[in-house]
From TrEMBL:
Residue stretches of biased makeup (Pro residues): 1-12
Organism, scientific name: Roseateles terrae
One GO MF term attached to the UniProt entry: lyase activity
Protein name: 3-vinyl bacteriochlorophyllide hydratase
Enzyme class: lyase
Any matching Pfam family: BCHF
Amino acid sequence: MLQPLPSTPVPSVPASRSGTTEGAHARSQTLSRPSLYTPEERARRDETRWTLVQGVLAPVQFLVFLISLGLVVRYLMSGNGETMAAASVLVKTLLLYTIMITGCIWEKVVFGRWLFAPAFFWEDVFSMLVLALHTAYLLAWTGGWLRGRPLMLLALAAYAAYLVNALQFIVKLRQARLQGARP
């Protein structure tokens, strides 16, 4: 039989001068969410050119993704434009490789490791899935293992993983901006 866990009393939070606990609540939120960057890492991030490279490549890759997604969906719905759709996935994949390589360099400069820095560990883990799916597309295309609809469905799987990964990075970017706004 399950026994309830003993409850521990929650320490009271002193009220601020205005009689509220808003300031204490904000401090507890800050303490519960560790900073993405140490002051030294933030300085390296702000000083390296690789931050700008990532900042340019990410939206370019997203734009190519949107165009390619449209071409892939068009092909899947109409059967027209297979060559354009396939070529667009190749361009998107080359951009993905480029941003992954430059991202590794950025991570090395900022955090001292090529991949899996604690601040971006799960984003990097999911990036491996994104790379694996895009690489599977390249191998299937160049090896002739998949053609037509099955190849484009593989592209859609790679794109779905990419979209999740892009959202992970957007959340991290927002977190970094919010932390940067703190005194």
